[in-house]
Amino acid sequence: MFVVDSMVQVPDHKADDLIDIYRKRSRLVDQADGFISFQLLQNDRKPGELTVHLEWESKEAYLNWARSEQFKKIHELEKQYPDQELQGIVPKVSKYEVVAT
């Protein structure tokens, strides 16, 4: 299994706005070959720290998704957030190979 986490830091007063955006997400990734799950995580001590957690069957499945037109489409939509504070979000991406369960 391969895991990709994308952590963003937004002002605490914007956390609920970003959560709402993800609750209404396109779900295009859900249809990708090798996709297992999506979760949006909120730090319990820092409300403005949110992490998108994606699980994939393999690194290859993730890379195929990351090179896809659907991936490009989703990330273009993110640049069009109506809120200027959310438009400038730059995630810290971490990728992991699951080596034991």
TrEMBL record:
PROSITE patterns: ABM. Residues 2-90 form the ABM domain. Pfam families: ABM (PF03992). It comes from the Bacteria. InterPro entries: ABM_dom (IPR007138), Dimeric_a/b-barrel (IPR011008), Heme-degrading_MO (IPR050404). SUPFAM superfamilies: Dimeric alpha+beta barrel. PANTHER family: SIGNAL TRANSDUCTION PROTEIN TRAP. This is ABM domain-containing protein. It comes from Halobacillus faecis.
